[in-house]
Design a protein that fits this description.
The protein has 194 residues and is mainly alpha-helical. The protein has a single domain, classed as Alpha Horseshoe (Leucine-rich Repeat Variant). The protein is 68% helix and 2% strand. The chain has 11 helices and 2 strands; from the N terminus they run αααβαααβααααα. It has a two-stranded antiparallel sheet with strand order 1-2. The longest helix has 19 residues. It starts with a helix and ends with a helix.
Length: 194
């Protein structure tokens, strides 16, 4: 319901910072009031949708707001909610599989998927996701989702692979399945360097 309401009034790049302020407020309340998990998850789903712009210059005008907003996704991995963490990961993976909006909003056009990926890079989302792995020592499902995100991010962030690989070497208790996913990221690094 929240997503439908916001989708009707949202002017995405222009209003993105406001959406993330609301998301941050919901996230701050989750620990004491778990009922905020659902609205926060709905807002994160909204962020997985294609971003829209009114003018070509919107991508430049809202660069800082967009990068800061996407960086917040990584920070929200600290919230102790498996549902929220998995939704964040799904949202980030959706950056790489952007579909055209289901409903055309007059006067708006979709920003390129490369813009969203670039803003995630500028905002330091990859670094925040690597750091979130420390928080997920027990939750295997969440770790696997983070690894999937890191695989996607590794295609656009060249230094990510080495950071991830070094992080894995410090964690001898990781499962072989997770290590093989990390090795796949390292292989991508070798290919992009070569």
């Amino acid at each position: 319901m929240l997503v439908l309401f916001l989708n009707k009034i949202l002017k995405p790049l222009r209003d993105l910072a406001q959406v993330f302020k609301i998301l941050s407020l919901c996230a701050d309340k989750i620990e004491k009031q778990p009922c905020f998990v659902e609205p926060a998850s709905d807002l994160i789903k909204l962020c997985g949708l294609p971003f829209l712009k009114k003018k070509v210059s919107d991508e430049i005008t809202y660069t800082e707001d967009t990068a800061n907003s996407l960086a917040l996704l990584g920070e929200l991995m600290k919230v102790r909610s498996s549902k929220l963490r998995i939704q964040i990961c799904k949202c980030i993976v959706d950056f790489y599989h952007a579909q055209p909006p289901k409903k055309h909003i007059p006067g708006y056009q979709q920003v390129s998927s490369s813009y969203k990926i670039k803003m995630a890079e500028v905002g330091g989302l990859a670094k925040a996701m690597i750091q979130s792995v420390h928080l997920l020592e027990i939750q295997l499902i969440e770790k696997l989702w983070v690894l999937k995100v890191l695989q996607h991010l590794s295609t656009s962030v060249l230094d990510l692979q080495r950071s991830v690989y070094c992080h894995v070497l410090e964690k001898p208790h990781w499962s072989s399945r997770m290590l093989s996913k990390y090795c796949a990221i390292e292989i991508k690094c070798a290919v992009t360097d070569g």
